[in-house]
Fold these 2 entries.
Entry 1:
Amino acid sequence: MIMEKDDHLVSRGRHYWKSLDGLAETPGFRSWIEKEFPDGASMLDGVQRRGFMKMMAASFGLAGLGMTSCRRPEHAILPYGQSPEELVPGIPSFYSTSMPTSKGFNPLIVESHEGRPTKIEGNPSYLPFGGGTDIYAQASVLEIYDPDRSRGSFKKDSKKTQGSTLMRWKKKPTDTLLLEVSKWAKEKKMAVLSDSSFSVVVNKIKDDYLTQGIKWFEYDPIDFLKPEKSLASALKADNSLRSIPNFNKCKRVLSLDCDFLGNREPFNQANSRSFMKKRHIRPNKPEDAKSMNRLYSVESDLTITGGVADHRLRLESSKMSVFANLILAQILRKLKSTDETLLSHLEKEQDILTAQNEWILTCVDDLCENPSSSLVLAGNHLPQDVQVAVYAINRALGAIGKTIRYKPVDPTLSSSVGSLVDSINAGEVDSLLIVGGNPIYHTKEFIDWEKLFDKLDNSARVGYSIDESSERCDLHIGQSHYLESWDLGLTWDNETLVPVQPLIAPLFDTKSDVDCLLRILGDSEDAHNLTKSLFEKISDKVSFDDFLRLGVAPYKPTGSMFSSAEKMASGSKEFLSPELRSFLLASSPVAPRLSDQNLEILLVPDFHCWDGRFANNGWMQECPDPITKLTWDNALLISPAFAKDLQTKYPDLGLLPKAALLNKTGEIAPDNANFINGKQTAPIVELLIDGAKLRGPLYLQPGLADYTIVASIGMGRSQTGRVGTGCGYDSSPFMNTEGKRVQTGVSCTPTGEFQVLANVQEHWSMEGRAIVREANVSEYVENNSFATSMGAESHSPPVWGRDQNMDLASKSQTTPRGNSSYEHPDHNYEKSEVHGLHQWGMVIDLNQCTGCSACVVACQSENNIPVVGKDQVLRGREMHWIRLDRYYSSAPREGTDIPSDVQVSFQGISCMHCETAPCESVCPVNATVHDEEGLNAMAYNRCVGTRYCANNCPYKVRRFNFFDWNKRDKDEVYKGPLGEKNDSLPAMGKNPDVTVRMRGVMEKCTYCVQRIQEAKINVKVAAQRHALLSTGKDGSDITLKKEDLKVKDGIMKTACQQVCPSDGISFGDLSDPSSKVSQLKSDSRDYSVLGYLNTRPRTTFLAKVRNPNERMPDFSSFPHSSREYHDKSHPSHHDDGHSGGHSGNAH
Amino acid sequence: MRNFFPRWANYIPLKLVICLGLIGGAVTAGITYYATPKYTRVGYKPTQPVAYDHSFHSGQLGLDCRYCHHGVDKSSHANVPSANVCMSCHKNIKANSPLLEVVRNSYFGEDTDKDGRLSDEEDLNKDGLLTAGPSVPWVRIHKVPDYVYFNHAIHVNRGISCVECHGRIDQMKVVHHAKHLSMSFCLECHRRPEESLRPMTEVTNLDWTVPTSDGQDLDLAQIHAGLEIKENWGVNPPLSCTGCHR
């Protein structure tokens, strides 16, 4: 435990000191601080102490000039007093654990170096996730080293000075405060407000609380359990009915506002894995494309799921009820239903969807033609009638039990935050304990907490950092990170038990939520023993130790209470039960008439900080949103149509870009966002709905439904750490008691102010270049090698020249000259007599990428990549080694309008490790050179920072350390060596196998060279020891073959490859023709980006194949990006737009 | 008009050039000699908190290096032994020597009466677990820069003896820095591994030399034996940056 003897918060000044008048620096406040300490006690504290240290450092430095103390600095090596068993310094240990989330527990394997958790990976033993993780799990390791987390427990201390009351948090031992709270539990009417939990332990403790008469309330800003509860109540089932899709057997999917591949829906990792698997085309098996699944997406916001979709329909979320009913009606008609009462009821409002009628009919045809292998999904924010209609549709399609399961789940016994308000008002509760979540931040606009807290005698908060909820309470009890806690939880599918086991003792004087709740109840048991005993009670086959080793155990709910629910969940023939029919008849959804005066708002969890809990996480804030590419901010997304309306009304907004130059085809096609000097200036608007006001910057987002505004929840936090302060706007004004996330009746007025947004991608379009190459299934089946006939290289002499037909293994081991008259540098270096044993290469399958961005953060975590802050991102100095490019393409269009319907393509770009790398030839100091295994190496200690290499890199993947990002906070970097050094806590999370780069050096993707070297060393050591043991002589007579020394395919994974939930990245040895990566590279979809430059990149891409339906009204025979490419590279074909499928061999 | 400058002033530029040349040469020579690892590192001999004598333990008693540095053939680090390794002998031998006070404190920790059991009075932090004492603050001698990732396991397992980098530790009463361990030192060996390769079983035998037949030159015999090992084992030490820098 890190013991901090002095009151840590005091030296932090205004970050933690809060006075009621909000002025921490008033003279009265200052004098109070001074009185708090006896004269002289603080002389060596804070600023004065720092000044003293600076002076001393300077004098030591001067003394050094005189050569009097020119000594080598002394380092101590501190071994253990009693070494833990099996621990060898330098070898990381791996522990299974899991991360509690509102979507169930996420099973993990965490790497620990000498006791410090450094890297998080998915647990491959949990098969639905298959070893992948999501972006939040990756970023959560940074939270444990967050310098702004609460470093202990605090009590509010108030003092009256000069007429005003001043408050501060005073540090107290956690045990003392817990004892205080446990007194309230015994003597007073206490209530608990918590977020919902998938923890078996917490739910058991909850029962204990309820039996003790302590009330328990739950609040979730994003309530994933709402759909299953509302479905159960509509069907009058005893249990919640949780929908769990199974894409393994699914051919057609219709998604109604459901981002099932993205972070907005639960179980998205499993969905990404199984759904994308059905889109996977195995190497040299083009026939796989014929059995590819097809996704129809109807959505108001443009999500990454919509980006994957083969057909996408823009529709406001508030029209989804009518839409779902219409789909149900059409399906029933297809099934020859004669229930005219129901049919006409379902079709009542269909006029508003006349424009979409053909789309709907064709889609329904396609769904019905694939009975039992089609599926419809609804977003969790949609109301009950949609959930029920979708359930009915799935019954009618025969999907239940085949492509979707409605799993009966124990309903949670808890009351909502609304009933807490009633209880407090009725005087039934006089002390409140808030555990986890951050309910006050989300509910502050519709609950008058100030009045409620006046009625309370006591209040305490168990939280990870001092946040908006802590601010109201008297006590703040520091909560431990999940990597410091014991717990036992369930995954979302309710089928697997996973442990939370600590990797490290709490760094500070904090306790886990389980420990806090137990202490408060006066229970002497600790979290570990309770976890163990509960596990042993549930599972008698597996021992607790084995469970911890494997990290998963099967879970079967006991009891026979599911009888009624089971009937609902099974796909019986009689698809409309009486309950279902009567519900459908009783509900009459009305679609609002939306206009620019009556807008709809959709509240979604923010990409960066989820519901606000990652607000102080620099990795998450800086990771660009996959669609908007915004960092450090959220924005109010509006559609191009509404932007045009606004622009006409308020011409000064500058929302629409000015018309660009005429392009070759004669159309004026501005298709990039409005940037001024690389900075996106966004007008700030005020949204109004029933008196609630929300201010935020507008962001024009193509692909949005015309009158939808998308706002994200969780940003704009007022009480958070140094990282999250000032990021984004707060959408809590639009939060409401019912938890409705789709609301209509919004009006929008510009305030006349503007804000700069840090957007990392100016360009929307590929401008007709063949960067991402795409084809439809029909084209791909006809012409397997469509990808090689695109791009400038299809018009230039072949790069490999006469060596064109050499196999990949020999190409990778030699450097064919191609048709060049110059000799290429060879891989042979100095006296290394043979080439490297391996030749590393990577393939990224664009058909598998959803754009989830987990690779970006995984790379950041593995490779110690610093966070630079919004100001530096605006200067284009972000440091990510992987850049996830997002491109839009659209159907042919005339005029200057920004397209509304776009197709999205993602492409992850990192250093390509070109064999003839342009960066190497311009480095004046040979800091970037090739190694014998084909890696483009970067020697940081040689780099002098000329940045020539970055200028010469055609892929723009090199990143320069303009400042000492790792040494100083982001607002101190400009001061250079005079700036204050930052807190050393985050340094504990660095990967010790990777250099922490300093100012002035270039860096880029290394193909995770530390993992490569580790794998190579392990193989060689194992081979050598094995051979020695088997011969039994002195070892000089051993003969090792080349194969013994090679890393086997699949043993070594790069960080981005390991995290990818859909296995889109492959990495391995090109000199081995049987390796997966060689197989993939021999596929006809394989192409190099900018291949005509003869850079011969080691990272290549597999072209994307889309699977649209020919009968659909929005069908185009080429993906929009290919059509743009063909139009621009062959303007003569422009008239007939769709004729582009020329064969590259003709050129 | 009178000359402002006397005649000897004509030679000032020449003198300056010569002087600067001499000073520059001296500075360059000085830096080359005094500021390179050969001078700054070799011979570094700090005083250790415990006067551990390698020449006695390793030289006279014949303890294998790996008895204490047990991670050397498994891990990148050659660990300095934890106090319990020392105490596995010194619980009985010289159990009360004042020289070992620091080690005993580190080993027993909260167990102040050193009886191997933790009584309630001794358990100061009341966690029921024996908390070890402060670590023995051994002073680091061999250190490569932070951007160098040297791996002990691969060297030790592939026939590179400890002696190649650390010298005759078994003859040192107090360990000092024997070789300069600069990048050129690493590269010399990586270019000509045959001069250092030896059978796996002789890696921790610091006294070992290649067996020679009568009159054969020792260096030549080593190169012959080394080349054979290199060939048989497929030894191909990396010469590129990624071998050591990540």
Entry 2:
Amino acid sequence: MRTLGILFYTAVLVFIGLLMITFSIVLSIPGFGLQSAKFFNDLLYVIQSSLNYRLVIGLSGVLLIIISFSFMQLILVRFQREKTIAFHSPSGDVTIALSAIEDLLRHFVVIIPEIKELKPDVIVNRKGNIIVNLRVVLKSEANIPELTAQLQEITKNKIQEVLGVEEQIVIRIHIAKIISREEKERRRKEIEKDEPKIPFGGYGRV
Amino acid sequence: MTNRNDSLTELGTIKIHRDSIASIAAIASTEIEGVKCIGKNFRSGLWELVGKKDYSAIRVEFDKNGEVCLEIPLVVKYNFSIPDVATKVQENVRNSLEKMTNIIIKDIGINVQAIEKG
């Protein structure tokens, strides 16, 4: 059914493409006499004067939008299916979106206080191994070798615990930035400076 | 492919629409601890904007023998084991549907779309 749908939409798009190519060829041949502005004037006049023509054009537009949305959905579903981890259970298949694993890893920012920012990217290679790329922004007080080892250990354990998978998990950590204490202070001051001062803000009620 | 499951009794036919099956599956799924909510698709997202519940994201298919295949998109809570939650959901959905509708469930697929804090 899905293949049929994709074939149908492809046929529609090919038809539109062919129509446009034919139109451009016809316009470039002088014998047809379509280059003049008068032809387009007449065409627009005919369309504007007849309610049926306007209706047909409007409905074609709506149809095209609906077709494009359905096509987009079909492609997105297929694309999403490719980005999943699947395992079987007696009652049926269980698929886990890789973006769900990325959601899981984002919570590590709360667990490890030295991490300022974490952007995970999870991929599964053809052998079925899970590859986790972590782009990390650290605070300056962090000990990098210790922290990365800890992060790799936690990531591996968490994925195995939550997904129940035994496949090999490769964890690559890329430290993108280290935020120093001075920079943090500077940012804090900038934020404070941007905030409008409240007149008589320092006085309290007695 | 039909939109409903028909069963014949002495008094007449009982038709159960796929939306009813999807609703039962949704309720049974959210009963399980660790399930945050049912996942969304484009249509259910639009209905949610209007404040209406729509379970069109749950795919219900009937085969020629009248057996039902389901695919349920789920959002799972953080700190829960996905295989455990998925298995419990499959069992609960199967039990609820068999108890309420008497239909034969062939397959219940679970699709974990996201993980969120509970």
